Structure formats: structure tokens, C-alpha cells
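User: I'm curious whether this sequence folds into something compact or stays loose and floppy. Could you predict its structure so I can see for myself?
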Amino acid sequence: MKQLLLCLLLAITPLANAEYSRTFLDTHPLKTIGVNGIDIAYRTVGEGADRPKIVVIMGLGGSNVAWGDNLIRGLSDAGYEVLMFDNRDTGASTRFDSWGQPTIWLQLIKHKLGLSVNAPYSLDDMAADAVGLMDALGYQDGHIIGTSMGGMIAQIVAAKYPERTRSLISIMSTTGARHLPPPTSLAENRLKDLAEGEAEADREAKIRARGFYPKSMPRHLMAVFKVGDRSGAVASIQAQTLVVHGADDGLIPPAHGEHTAELIEGAEFILFEGMGHNLPEAVMPDLISSMTAHMDRVEAANASISPES
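Assistant: Here's the prediction. I'll summarize afterward.
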């Protein structure tokens, strides 16, 4: 149990001290709108009626600004309008703090036994939030991009709402299949030296400044457990798909990304050296190039079959 909780922190702890800027994102106003009976906070970058749309979905405990300036600016500079938002229970969206925290050890046992876990919502609800936000803002469809847990949500959107999915980009994510490898021992060992006291408080302050909300993470984890293995749904995805993974990802090893790509017909898989369970600046230019090339191909194909062409 303790190792699992530490592994959850692995997703955000390295980010606390990594190079990061949100200055560009903060120049775009954060707005709130009602979706599915809750409030969803969102912002748009690179707005334009004639620009193809992107919907980006952040991972466990992360708000919209956790993406950082460089990736979002890169996608916008490539000619796309980017919709980013806070998943339910994080950031400025409706929080579920009053629900309390799950009893992790008990829910882990239930999950391992294949029993339903206690959760205030599931990844299916979070996928419905993304589509509901698209409805509210008049997005007919969009390139759906998700990272980590956000990649799982993006996969659900592509599977359940194919008409709203212009393409799919799944980054350092998983199908949840039980045969896939667990976090590496190296990943777990890196967490044994987590600071305490003032250093721990300083780390959490940095994490929050980067847009992550640790108290949301256990409930987000239950949302992941609630849906379990999604291999069947992932195999049904028809959208053109790019799967991206880091060769050094210890939290969700590369086999998870490979499995995702294997299940989706025609999916492209790219493994980045020097990338772990993060979006390092060193790979950012190639990452943005790969993502925009994928979306540009989809846009070109759609234009060639458009009735107006």
C-alpha cells in the first residue's frame, strides 16, 4: 500500500524541481461553465473559428496549467486551438473533498479481487465531462490528447464518442490490462528518499505551484480502479491514433504504451529516449513535431474527402 502511494507521487515529484513555466498559460483567462451537474474550469489558447480544435486532458491530480507553456504554445503555434481544463475534483473545477478519502488498503484488496471499489466517480464520468465541455463550447469534434490518467480518459472518449474524436494521442498511458508490468523497482527505490518536515512542505508547495493537487489523487486513483481493464474498449477505437511513451518511464513502463498501440488498428507508436513519466524539455521539440505531424496528416486527409474540396 505504501509503495503504491509513493508511486502515485512519482508522477509529480520529479516535476516539482524540473524546468517549468506557466506564464504564457496564465495570460489566458480561466473560465468556469456548468457541465454534467458540476462546474468545470477551462481556458482556450490560440482561438480561431477556422482553426482545428485540440482537447488536452491532464493526468492524476493535475490541473490545466500542469501542461506548462512550451507544449501548449507549440500546439497553438502549429495552427490549432487548444482547449485545456481542470478535471473534476482538481484545480478550480468542482472538488469532492466532502466525499472524503478512500481507505486505500481496503480498496486495493477489492481491486485485486476484481470487486467494485468505492469511488465518487469513474473515468467514464470524467470522459463525459470532456465531451460535455465540448458541447458547451460548441466543439463539433477535436483531436483528443491525454497524458497518464488523462490518456486513459482520452481513450474512453475515442471509444465511446467516436464522432467527437478527430484523432487520438495517448501519452505515457495504459489500457489497464492486468498482465502489464507494474512500476519498476527503480521507480519505487527513487521514492524511498522523499524528504520530510520543511523539505516535504517545500516540495508540496512546488507541486501545487505547478498545478497538481495531491489530495485529489486518491479519489482519481479510485476512478481508475473503477473502470479496470479497458482493453476491449481500446481495441474498438477507430480514430487515427498516436501512442507516445518514454523509454525511462518507471511508473507506467513502456509495455503499457506498446499494448495500447497494438490494440488500435493502424496506431503509430513512438518511444522517446530520455523521457520518463514526464514531459522533459529535452524531448519537447520532437514531441511537439510528432504530435503536430500526426494531426496535420489527419487534417489533410479530412480536407481531401471534404464535400467542399
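Summary: DSSP finds 13 helices and eight strands in the chain. The CA atoms of residues 240 and 297 lie 10 Å apart.
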